[in-house]
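Supplementary Note 2. Why include the ligand at all?

Several targets in our set were suspected to adopt different conformations when bound, so apo predictions alone were not considered sufficient. For every target with a known small-molecule partner we therefore ran a joint prediction. The input for glycine is given below.
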Amino acid sequence: MKSVQVNLGSRSYPIHVKSGLLKQTASILSDQNHGQKWVIISQYNLMELFGFDLMTELNESGFNCDYITLPLGEASKCLNEFGRVISQMVEIGCDRKTTILALGGGVVGDVSGFVASSFMRGIDYYQIPTTLLAMVDSAIGGKTGINIAEGKNLVGAIYQPKGVLIDPVILESLSKEEVMAGLGEVIKYGAIWDKAFLIDISTWLEDIDSFPFEDAIRKSCKIKAEVVSKDEREGDLRRILNFGHTIGHALESHLGYGKIRHGEAVALGMKCAGFISQKLNLLSKEELSTLNQTINRLPLPQLPHINGNHLMPFIKTDKKSEKGVLNFVLLDGLGNAISSTDVTEELIQESLKVLN
Ligand code: GLY
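The joint prediction is reproduced in token form.
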């Protein structure tokens, strides 16, 4: 099967993208089955939709597979749940050879990956993402972690999976709104890395019913894999994946959990970052208009009036800020992102007008 490769020397791994792939999991993983215990970590609703069938198929194909569920929601990315999963793994007889299959969205992937990084000093795991966001972003690149009271993802590790298995058919189980929001992250890849891809996305969005998800996901994975292969630990280049996220994260925190989807917040954040890039003469008016036209093809939420003075503290505490200096990702032309420390508070405030 043609796959996208994340090139990290001995920790390299494939990303398989193919419609109907979930049903082929047993044959894809058969080479890796040496009689060890396999554990699907997921959520109960996902087990009902896909996980129980997957477990049956694996067990009928000679695997020894069990499962553990996490509660729904971001709240399960916590030390308590982490500890509970580890204890449950011991109870069901997991050991150093056990392999985890993380079946879910970002929360499941982050917790499962962190469990894999630390259980008996590290075991193998695979990501099987079930949301568009996880397919194009969080399942790739090895960022794992949990939240503590003091902040999100403050405990974690960069620990790469052995492989990522993406079945775009899974998206059919999600609401249209959920999938459309995830396209914000897909647009991001075109904006930061590949202008021709951005133009393709824009054209594809004219008729969402025939949007080629498989191609768009594969291309997004290819871009993410290229960035991660060059800068696994976010020395510099990997930061560009945060295009739209500084203001996007601030909007999520300011509006409150559940009020805006992550992909929608990123889409709006990209409009602000595009505005700033144009003001700094990095992006032409024509390029900004191409970016905005593409983003505007997504059904973005109508926000309440955003008071810049209320949003600013969230922007300043964004994790991209180091030693008090904010690293803001801008576009130096479409398809080329840069990280800048030259964005003033005034300019950020001015950019917020594009939100209303
Ligand atoms: N989601 C951004 C990264 O993986 O670096």
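The chain has a mean pLDDT of 95. The longest strand covers residues 151-158. Comparable summaries for the other entries are listed in the accompanying table.
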